[in-house]
Design brief:
alpha+beta; four-stranded antiparallel sheet; 9 helices; 42% helix; 14% strand
Length: 242
């Protein structure tokens, strides 16, 4: 909000301070606690694997800010933009299947919304927006990945996110010059959040392992009648998703 209000009020010094603080506080790799880790893990609420939950929201909201200041004297450095692109391929792509979010890294949101494609809308819209300001070669990588997701799902991502990103998604989907990235084949280990994903083209799996540093599952008790994810016991107790 500080960055947006500073831009609207043409307060350059205040805007510069806000951008600098965001760059220092958010883009570093975490060593402990909440945040993005160098192994691709994303932890939130202290011990919950949350890549396709709060991690997706972070990617999306950051992309709004970087897009707004892109091309101005307050634009984020190429180093930080490239780091955000690295997050896409190190953290997010391995936990998406045809654009749909894997449940073992969605925290209690997996219970709140069981539509895996709908849960990944913020990730997909974030990718579309990042592709507009990322360096040319990295932008091509993102668009090819998005093209694959869009070509292999019936879910309407273009009409499910913000209006501001609908054009980006439609343009990528309709642009025949953008090659569709091949289906992923390989495995990715996330030691910090005790997860392993395997992609084999036409199917994918996630092994959710038991760890003393990762919670078994997340449950919020708001009141006697409102409880989020009351039956998620096995999420982090050693479970295989296919």
């Amino acid at each position: 909000w500080v960055i947006m209000s500073s831009a609207l009020q043409k307060q350059g010094e205040r805007l510069e301070k806000a951008v600098d603080k965001l760059a220092k506080d958010v883009f570093h790799y975490a060593k402990i606690g909440d945040g993005m880790y160098e192994d691709g893990s994303y932890i939130y609420h202290g011990s919950v694997p949350y890549t396709t939950g709060y991690g997706g929201s972070l990617l999306d909201m950051l992309s709004v800010i970087l897009y707004v200041v892109d091309g101005s004297e307050h634009a984020f450095s190429d180093e930080l933009v490239n780091r955000q692109v690295d997050w896409i391929f190190d953290s997010f792509a391995p936990v998406l299947f045809r654009g749909a979010a894997m449940s073992a890294v969605s925290g209690r949101i997996a219970w709140m919304n069981n539509n895996e494609s709908e849960r990944s809308v913020c990730v997909i819209t974030g990718l579309a927006r990042i592709s507009q300001y990322a360096p040319a070669e990295r932008a091509k990588e993102i668009k090819s990945l998005l093209k694959y997701y869009l070509d292999n799902t019936s879910y309407k991502f273009a009409t499910s996110g913000l209006i501001s990103t609908a054009d980006f998604i439609v343009d990528i989907q309709n642009d025949k010059s953008i090659p569709s990235d091949a289906a992923q084949v390989g495995a990715k280990v996330f030691p910090k959040m005790a997860r392993v994903t395997t992609h084999r083209g036409d199917f994918a799996s996630m092994l959710s392992m038991c760890s003393p540093t990762i919670c078994r599952y997340e449950c919020f008790i708001w009141s006697d009648t409102k409880i989020d994810n009351p039956n998620g016991w096995y999420t982090g107790a050693g479970m295989l998703y296919v």
